[in-house]
Automatic annotation (TrEMBL):
Coiled-coil regions, chain positions: none
Name recorded for this polypeptide: ACB domain-containing protein
Any GO MF annotation of the entry: fatty-acyl-CoA binding
GO annotation, biological process: fatty acid metabolic process
Keyword annotations of the record: Lipid-binding
Originating species: Drosophila erecta
Length: 82
């Protein structure tokens, strides 16, 4: 696997802002490998609820699997937004 921290930084530095649905894919994986399975109540606001759902969709993924999926996602979207 490529240097994961470098990929995190490159994702943050995309030259074009990805649409919300792409951001949420990254967000769900990021939260899963940083904090594990979701451990909060679903927020009432739309943005918070969308982030909650993105994280919840990754429930059960191990840290390594979440990181591997993040790398695959980066490789998919970097040519478009990088």
């Amino acid at each position: 696997m490529a240097d994961f921290n470098a990929i995190l930084e490159k994702t943050k530095a995309f030259s074009k802002k990805p649409p919300t649905e792409v951001f949420l894919e990254f967000y769900g994986l990021y939260k899963q490998f940083q904090e594990g399975d979701i451990n909060i109540e679903k927020p009432a606001d739309a943005e918070g609820a969308a982030k909650y759902d993105a994280w919840l969709s990754r429930k059960g993924l191990s840290v390594e699997d979440a990181k591997a999926a993040y790398v695959v996602l980066y490789e998919k979207y970097n040519p478009i937004y990088g």
